From TrEMBL:
Sequence ranges assigned to domain Methyltransferase in this UniProt record: 48-139
Regions annotated as coiled coil: none
Name of the protein this chain belongs to: Class I SAM-dependent methyltransferase
Annotated spans, Disordered: 194-218
Alphabetical keyword list: Methyltransferase, Transferase
Organism for this UniProt entry: Streptomyces lavenduligriseus
Taxonomic lineage from the root: Bacteria, Bacillati, Actinomycetota, Actinomycetes, Kitasatosporales
Keyword Transferase among UniProt keywords: yes
Amino acid sequence: MTEEDGRTPAAVVFDALGLDYERAFADSAERRASLDWLLERLAPGSRVLDVGSGTGRPTAHTLAGAGHRVLGLDVSPVMVDLATRQVPGAEFRLADIRDAPLAEASFDAVCAYFSLLQMSRAEQAAVVAKLARVVRPGGLVALATVPLDVEDAEGVFMGQPIRVTSFGAEAFTGLVTGAGLTVLAEECSRYTPDLPGATPEPQLFLHARRPGRPPEDR
């Protein structure tokens, strides 16, 4: 499904949101804890893929600031422009992870925070399998989603109409292990965006590793 001008529905939504999205979710302690988990385990100068990089903050900003080589992919031209200006120490590309050409085992870590929710279940499964291939053996994968059992559900997100598909927590974890990744830790929480009238939403953070030679202990 695409818009008449060729943009995906996700691109249309996030083009409209811009920095408002960053402000609404900037104080997520759970995402920062997930980034800390990565930082504690990454070797210096690691190559990291950030799927759905948004405005570049906090993910790419945190990782690049720690000296890692970050490539961010996003379908929203507005987000890519914002990220390029806000995080000059990282590289950002306008690309859709579903068809972006990425070499196998070319990253030390991959993170995808809430960037799969406007894909079908089959597409989400294919993307997770792709992420499992592009991270090197022993490499790390950090994923976050809203763990609800919904498929192509209509909704409104920050004033923008959206259609959302997701998995329950157990099913999403099964999808990740089915892609050949070993889940090392998972954290379920509830987060309230900084928005008028916002209510808490469930969140699931998974930390996994591609089997193989592990990263060097430090």
